[in-house]
Write a structure and sequence with these properties.
The N and C termini lie far apart (90 Å). The chain is globular, with a radius of gyration of 27 Å. Strands 3-4-9-8-5-6-7 form a 7-stranded mixed β-sheet, with helices on both faces. A 4-stranded mixed β-sheet has the order 10-13-12-11, sandwiched between helices. The chain contains 23 helices and 13 strands. By secondary structure, it is of the alpha/beta class. The structure holds tryptophanyl-5'AMP (TYM). The site of tryptophanyl-5'AMP (TYM) has 24 residues, from strand 5, helix 6 and strand 8.
Amino acid sequence: MTSEQKDNKKEENKMIVTPWDTSGKIDYNKLVIQFGTTLIDDALLEKFKKVTGKDLHPWMKRGIFFTHRSFDVFLDAYANGEPVFLYTGRGPSTDAMHIGHLIPFLFTKWLQDVFDCPLVIQISDEEKAAFKQLDFNVLHEMGIKNAKEIISCGFNPKKTFIFSNRDYRLRCPQYENFTSDMKNNTSMKLIQSIFGLQGTGNIAMYDWPVYQSAAAFYQAYPHIFGNRPAYCLVPHAIDQDPYFRLARDAASKMNLIKPCNIECTFIPPLTGQDGKMSSSKAEATLFLDDTEEILRKKIMTLCLSGADPDPEVHKKKGGNVDMDIAYQYLKYFEYDDKRLEEIKEGFTKGTISAVEIKEILVQSLYKIMKQIQDYRKTIDDKLIEDFYAQKPMDLPKPKMKEPTKEETKLYEYLDQLKIQHTTKYHVAIITKDQAEDLARMLEGTICKGILLKSKEGYIYYIINEQTTVNPKVLSKKIGA
Ligand code: TYM
């Protein structure tokens, strides 16, 4: 190879990972350094097990979800009984999603079961309109088709909110206001440097990142959280990380809870290890609506093999699982660790042939795809409406705090004055603003709490800024 050819090869293999373009040989360790995320280590996995009481997902054990931002902080919040939620998304660009997209969604479904918490799913139709320059109505329609496949992963409709970004920001002023505040706190320079945008292209390309970032804060969902602060965990592949660098930067400036992330590796294209499986390379991609025959045909003919082309040589020498794409996919889709180990051993020793390992993949993968295809057929308009509805969701009850020394002293003093008080409301009956209104209305007095006059005397309520109460209901209750 001449030095010019070598340079060309180097250029071809140059790793590019952005939310819109992934190519070259992916070096995940390098990406972690480049992006500034943290590798998931054994201590964090142990913490996950301890806090949730659950065993690890095979994709955590196998290093498929391999890096994070503040996942430990999320686990602490969950352990402390704070409200938490999950957030992920899809950029509609094809009618059917591919098996790479399944990884964050199936993992998110599992996390929703583990944490039993709200989940929000952003359909980034406006992102695709900005970057692909496609007709918005077509993208919106694709978004709904994609949402059907997402729903078919088994999410809980009572705890899942799916939204088209365009529709939601036009419908929910609080979301649009919150995003506007974030835009005011985000410089053009920062967007350019995080996303590698050079000042060319349309304005929507520069505007979009704020929406994907803003959706990682509880303030974007007043129908779920009201004023109750909640911690967000975002599962996704590493290409989406730049959005959350932006989100975390905005969080520092705006004094918000930083989103936490858990990030996975890419399913490679059928034809080889470079880049990722992507809808834009349709010929090397397995789509969720492929039939079993199409799936088998694509896998048998296109899937790069780690076996010697001569079956007799493979039998003698064995194959290379690191090169074998069927095996690489099985690491994602064969959940049984023991079975995966047997397949590895068989292929490495040559007792499982190139065709056999591909057939094993067809069986394992189609089992998962069929479940999704069957579920999708049952989805009606009502179920879609349920998922898209801005509905309230159950949050953990606020924890009762033990009174501090000062507070105990205060209660003793109130007892002496024969002023009724209650630790029942120690954590929270009302926001400060409402307390002030209420105090004005009821001629109460505000100090650290609120003193209200009732028929029987005075009642002292402690103010906490996390819970809201309807003042009319409250005043009726205490007879003021
Ligand atoms: P999109 O539609 O490109 O991808 C959807 C999700 O799939 C992940 N992904 C992959 N994972 C494994 N292997 C692959 N080959 C592969 N290709 C894609 C993506 O990382 C993503 O998690 N801008 C986003 C949509 C979005 C979003 C979000 C994603 C909006 N808000 C919040 C994650 C979190 C997009 O176009 O994703």
